Input
Amino acid sequence: MSFPGKPREPRPPSRARPRQSLKMQAIGFLSRREYSRQELRAKLLDSLRKRAREDAALAAAADQAAQERAEALRAQASNGIDDAFAPSPAPVLPPTAARPPLRAAVSTCAGTARDGARERALRRPALATLSLASGAPLPSTLSARLQHVAVADAAAGGSATSPGNPASAAPAPQREIDDPELAVDQLLDWLAANKYLDEARFVESRVNARSRKQGALRIKMELSRHGLALEPEQAAALRESEYARAQALWQRKFGAAAADDRERAKQARFLAARGFAADLVRRIVAGLEES
Output
């Protein structure tokens, strides 16, 4: 139920919807019509930029919602219950208690990353303050195991490698490609290798789609913008049918010869703008047959 006088509260940001991979998106584009490599590349890059803008807007909305929730919680009056169950801060150990018994060994082997990582792990106060639910100290076996895990984690986070530490010797994961243009070019190569993308099919489909309303000059100009050109057989076929196509277009548009010079100029401009040759345009406007 909605109340017209009450303002609607802003909704929290929605989660990101599942998206198709870039490869499936490109195949979807090609399933609807033929694209040239240049045209499909621009379309995929535009899609990646749109995704980046959506992700940035979603992250900004999530940060704004988190800040608003935090401010609302700070503005609420304390009821005493939350304070009673708030986690107590970790106790700060005195300098003498925080120093491990391995300090003398560390001082003699300060150049090794393994002992440095072990010293950092042993100085963590959270491990020293752990206990069972009953308040009893941890068993010695469990304490030793946790200490070993802490040392391994600290060594894995360091920059140095050690032959005795398998975590530090593990190779770093390979980073994903951050260059969108390189990723799109690699995808286009894969599409061309698997016959999803074929520029010969694109030229044929574009000629079939444009030849009914455009002349050879206009078709060649459009293909040149995609970095392509007509095959000799296609160019010859367009020249042979040029007059018939221009005559049919003129008949659909005007249907009768011009009554004066102004009307003839209008008809000539129309056919010339569609890419038909000048001598052919003059013959059609003058009512002459094909020679």
Confidence is low (pLDDT under 50) at residues 102-111, 158-176.
